[in-house]
Amino acid sequence: MPPKFDPKSPENASLISLFQGLGLAEKSATELVRQPKSGLAFKSLVDEFSLENNKYDEKTASALVKLSASSGKLGPAERGFIVKKIEIGDIKSSDQVTAAVKYAEGNPAGTPINEEEFNKACGVGIDITAAQLPELLRSYISSLPTAPENWAGLSAVLGGIRSGASDLKWANAGEVKSSLETIFTELFGTKEAAQAAAKAQATSAAKTKPAPKPKAAVASSSAEASSSTSPVIPTNIFREGFLSDFHKPGENPQINPKLKEQHLEFTKGMVYTRFPPEPNGYLHIGHVKAIMVDFGYAKFHGGRTYLRFDDTNPEAEEGRYFQSILETVRWLGFEPWKITYSSDNFDQLYQWAVELTRRGKAYVCTCSAEKMKADRGLGKGQPVPCEHRDRPIEESLREFERMKNGEYPEQGAALRMKMDLSSGNPYMWDGVAYRVKLAPHHRTGDKWKIYPTYDFTHCLCDSIENISHSLCTVEFIPARESYEWLCDALEVYKARQYEFARLNLQGTFLSKRKIAKLVNNKLVKDWDDPRLYTIIALRRRGIPPGALLSFVSDLGVTTSESVVEIQRFESSVRSYLEESAPRLMMVLNPIKLIIENVADDYRVPVQVPLHPKVPAMGTVETSFTKEVYIDAEDFREEDSPDYFRLAPGKSVGLFKAPFPVTCTSYSKDPVTGQVNEIRCRLEDTGNVKKAKAYIQWVNVPESIKIDEVRYFKPLFRSDPPPADFESDVNPESLEVYKNAVIEPAFYELSKKAILDARKESEERTKKAKKESSIKSPEESKAVEGSEASKHLEDEPVVTAEQLVGMENIRFQGMRLAYFSVDRESKIGCLDENEATKPGKKDGDKIILNRIVSLKEDSGKKA
Ligand SMILES: [Zn+2]
Question: Fewer Cβ neighbours under 10 Å: the N or C end of the chain?
Fold first, then answer.
């Protein structure tokens, strides 16, 4: 029996008093000393960093106690770093200390901790007050792929918050629970009433059919799964910083108070935003931010977002881009409330152009392009008016009519806005409102010979759609003056434009024209070649949409431009996958390992967890057999003291196998000189020593051959690539491994990922269709018999299939890298019905793409 604890013994009393002095309450200080191990751990932390004369508040002191109890594996530098973070109040709660220790444990020894990443991993600076919780929780619930349907879903939602990626996990757990209970009461009535009702229903249902399973139970886990088609949308950028400071709907100034009334009558005070891409190319990584800001801002505030195709240039559009853009927006987790086209408004815009002219605020100018440039000072001087500026209104109206009737050739005439030539802002120098274009338009056919410019169209479409916040990138700052001038000149509702900095990623190659060249000259596979940075390429490579969102959210949204390093992007993807991707054993360059001292039919079932830290992901079963494959990297002919894997006479552990093996001999291929077989002894008798290192393996009889494993490196040899970029393409930027093998659980995992993705996507799509006002192609208003009606098949449509692809199968090849399945693969079992046990089929072709490496530098080695 341990000796009785005496708080008054001199030794204990002095320790208690020391701990009290540091800020602990008497009771906790005594309790700590009563547990000798904890007490000593705290004392040694105090000694290590000479904290004895400090005075903390109780919370800080408790955080230090928690640190002392859990940081045993850390080096002094890492521990010291966390002590500092606790002292300055960055790390407060016990959850944060746990996260901090976990982060520091993963930090490679000898390298300083990256504070920014540390802060993110530990929720530093996230301060969610009780008052903010209801709104945040509602928004969180609405982002779940399957909303809770009753009180039974409460614990799943709480669990999802705790283990998930949302900032809510850093909020006070008690407050979260109580706020959530309030929301559930609003949704489903009181808990007691719901329980009584469920009981009554169960009794009556027992006679007829089984009670429905609460669906919410799976919601939170699938929301985080790496195969998910409904990424969790981070909210921090809308809660703090630039995007949190915007006006409330209706507060944006108008030239006439009536306009505000009409606006609010339409929007009912909701936030309305739009994402307005030109349908003339595939979206690239820079657009992720714009999509997230436009859609996310409205979603965060319970508002609506239009996907508006800015199709005012008839020459630039191509049908395939409409569908691709809609798919991309949805793949990133957002649903347009409505899909519109600037061309829907051509009639209204034309009438406004006439009205503007009538008001004496526009005129038809027939100066040549060169003259117009010269009049505008050639970018140096102040502009001068041309002879048309003060022509009579009637004359301009007549000429505009002639432009409309196709009586002018292209560039023969333009309608210009009569703005302010004395302004310092070139956007105010009588910009062009309408120009002549004789090409037929994708939707309106040959109805128009004149087309509005971006500057004329954009603000007026925002006005028509009652946009409350018109969010765009900083290069539009100077355009804001003309944007507002035009709305005021016509006395129409005026949205407020806000500008944020673009996402610039170093080493990315985004020019449409240049990528088209690479594609046409077959230097890349297609627009979605995983070495490119179009969003379809990122998708094909296997980058999860949630990883892109969390990357943008970690960078934050500000007004100052910066260029982000590609390593930072990859590290963000890596940490996202670290949490969400299951693990499989896979061998890239297999060597056969034969265990000599077991029978030929030796077979031991082994359970391998799919994720070491997420037991909920489950396990898969494999067999440990006489012959297994290991990676060529894990064997050396010459041993050395700092090497812990397999070498002649040396032992190594095979992950989750019951015993380690010791290498007894090996043989080489006489032709290549490469080691091709290793013979080992199973150390299953006597005093088994614990292995110093564990390596992955795949049993030979059940191994699945992978046709191709594709590793990607930067596409160009130089950064940035030279003007003659085509000759700079690195032929080794695509590296293909053709001998890799993987455990049979690959099929199980693939089928589950695809089935889950399909189900989730169907539900999400059903919900989206219900909530949006997107018309089916048949309902949309193509002018009958017109060019547009011939293009009906090009109308983008919302489908469940567009969110599901081979890339939803993502996993970590243990100790190798993160991989996804390439769209060129064929895996027959994915099309079989749910109950059929998945396995290899004739004609299967498995191609894997490496998404990212496991560590920043291991890319060089591979
Ligand atoms: Zn002129």
Answer: N
DSSP, residue by residue, 720-765:
S--SSGGGGB-GGGEEEE-S-EE-THHHHHHHHHHHHHHHHHHHHH
At 198 the pLDDT is 63
How far is the C-alpha of 728 from the C-alpha of 333, rounded, in Å? 36
- Residue 197 to residue 181: CA distance in whole angstroms: 18
Cα–Cα distance measured from residue 161 to residue 167, given in angstroms and rounded to the nearest whole number: 8
CA quadruple 675, 681, 682, 683: dihedral positive or negative? negative
Q: What is the pLDDT of residue 791?
A: 55
Residue-wise pLDDT for 123-148, tens only, equals 888 888 877 888 888 888 877 767 78
Q: How many CB atoms lie within 10 A of CB 765?
A: 19
DSSP3 helix / strand / coil % (the chain, rounded to 5):
45, 15, 40
User: What local confidence, expressed as pLDDT, does residue 223 receive?
Assistant: 36
Residues with active-site annotation: 278, 502, 512
How far is the centre of ligand 1, averaged over its atoms, from the C-alpha of 364 (Å)?
7
Q: What phi and psi values does residue 308 have, to the nearest 5 degrees?
A: -110, 115
* Regions of the chain short of the pLDDT cut 70: 1-3, 145, 163, 165, 195-224, 317, 379, 774-794, 857-862
Using N-to-C axis directions, what is the helix angle for 58-70 and 36-48, rounded to 10°? 100
pLDDT at 191: 74
What is the 413 CA–ligand 1 centroid distance (Å)? 9
How far apart are the CA of 450 and the centre of ligand 1, in A?
A: 17
pLDDT value of residue 861? 38
How many A from CA of 386 to the centre of ligand 1? 5
First to last CA, the chain: 57
Ligand 1 center–CA 369 separation, angstroms: 9
* Residue 214 pLDDT: 33
- In this structure, how many other beta carbons lie within 10 angstroms of the beta carbon of residue 55? 9
Ligand 1 centre and the CA of 436: distance in Å?
15
Nearest to 416 by CA among 382, 463, 372: 372
Phi, psi of 340, rounded to the nearest 5 degrees = -130, 170
User: If 0-12 CB within 10 Å is exposed, 13-18 middle and 19+ buried, where does residue 529 land?
Assistant: buried
Looking at residue 858, what is its pLDDT? 43
Distance CA 333, CA 296 (A): 9
Q: What is the CA radius of gyration of the chain?
A: 32
Decide: helix, strand or coil at residue 348.
Answer: helix
- Cα angle: 481, vertex 484, 490; to 5 degrees: 135
Determine the pLDDT at residue 781.
52
pLDDT value of position 226: 80
Residue 5: count of CB within 10 angstroms of its CB: 12
Spell out the residues 6+ positions from residue 820 whose beta carbon is closer than 8 angstroms to its own.
541, 542, 806, 807, 808, 809, 810, 811, 848, 849, 851
The bridge status of strand 651-654 relative to strand 694-695 is: parallel
